[in-house]
Amino acid sequence: MSQIDENQIHDRLKRLSEVEPGKQASGRAMQRVRDTLIADEGRRVGLARPSLIGRLMKLAAAAVLMIGAGYIAGRLSAPEPVNVQELQVALESSLKSSLEPAIRQELLSQMDERWQAALAASNARVKNELTRQVRRDLMEFAAQTLAASGTRTDQRLMELIELIDAVRLQDRQRMAAAFDYIESRFGGGLVTLAARTDELLGSERAVPAPAVSEN
Amino acid sequence: MRSRQKELLELLDKSGADLYALLTRLTLREDIAEELMQELFIKLNNSRGTGNAANLHAYARKSAINLAFDWRRSQKRMVPTTGRFSEPVSTEDSPLRKLIHTEELTETLDAVGRLKKSSREVLVMHYLQQESYDNIAEQLGKTSHQVRALCSRAIRNLRDVLGSNEHKSSKKEIHNVANR
Fold first, then answer.
1. So what's the pLDDT on residue A165?
2. Spatial distance between the Cα atoms of A122 and A115, rounded to a whole number of angstroms
3. How confident is the model at residue B86 (pLDDT cuts 50, 70, 90)?
4. CA distance B58 to B64
5. Is the separation of the CB atoms in A124 and A35 below 8 Å?
6. What is the pLDDT of residues B41-69, one digit of tens each?
7. Is B20 in contact with A20 (CB distance < 8 Å)?
8. Distance between CA atoms of residues A156 and B162, nearest Å
């Protein structure tokens, strides 16, 4: 059933355990995480601004102080006693006129700041995500191209080897045919030539060698 | 600075390199490991469970293993396989040999990803991170014998998964040859 044995599995796991990232890559990854954590902390701190209620309280206290001071000054400088109803109306209108625009302005500026912070954060996140996606896609594409080109190269090499083998076989067959042809065509002539040569050599051996004089 | 963030920075200094190496082993790609490392710490920073975890390192390692295998599952294998070779072409480290090695490691990791979470974690800790049985037992709150048994079972299951893969692929090859 299983065609792979435990030794092979252990061998593969050992090879996996020997995979080590480069020191530079490791340092870069850790620095990136550290930067992210610190930036996140900074963002959180930046968002924790003084609350709206506190600022409004200060504004209201200032307004009350001013109104009180005005009231006292008016009371001291006024020749006649002031009507309470009129004073209430005057206070209401004064508070309204002094507080309402300030609150509105404050609210608007708060909203603007929050929108700007949120937009900046989302913009950075989208940019980061896009960069990561593009990088991931490029790496994926490169890996696929490399694997595909490797396969194609292997295929081409196999085809080339097969082609060379076929040509060599054809060449040998042609050489064999040529030898056959030579044998069939000149075989008899070669035998006659050999016989004649043998006879000639025999007759030369039969004739005595001439005496060689020393002079 | 918040206490959690301080803890995470300490974790990064102490175990960041180990976590990155683990992610590289499980993904076989440094760029993906870098992405997953950042994702891991963002998750740890935002997660409520981090504060309750007694051993932050163990929690981070478990999360890293899960992240890496989630990534492996999300990857669809579109790259054509190079076929199988019964005998090595050469004993040298040729590009083809390297390719086969990488293919084998990828196949093994995919098979590890198909194991149960507990078996997978123990297998990764013992065989990939080279941690002792006693150390793993201490971290997981089990006995050394239990961890040893888990490892043994994990290897058996891994063998079955890889064996069934081989069987399937050889059947496919026979089918392909028959159709030629």
1. 94
2. 11
3. very low
4. 10
5. no
6. 888 888 766 555 557 888 888 899 999 99
7. no
8. 31
> In chain B, which among 101-160 make CB contacts under 8 A with chain A?
101, 104-105, 108-109, 123, 127-130, 155, 158-160
Strand segments (E) across B104-165: none
The separation between CA B96 and the C-alpha centre of its own chain, rounded to angstroms, equals: 24
Q: Which tokens belong to A86? A: 């009129």
CB pairs under 8 A between A and B: 134
On whether any CB of chain A is under 8 Å from the CB of B166, the answer is: yes
Q: For residue range B102-134, what is the model confidence (pLDDT) as tens digits?
A: 888 888 888 888 888 888 999 999 998 899 999
Q: Which mean pLDDT values do the consecutive 10-residue runs of chain A (215 residues) have?
A: 74 88 88 85 60 77 89 78 79 84 89 90 89 93 93 93 94 92 81 88 76 52
Nearest residue, CB atoms, A21 vs list B24, B79, B80: B24
A2/B contact by beta carbon, under 8 A: yes
Q: Which two tokens stand for residue A107?
A: 């609210």
The set of residues, in sequence order, having a beta carbon less than 8 Å from that of B140 and lying 6+ positions away, is B58, B121, B122, B147
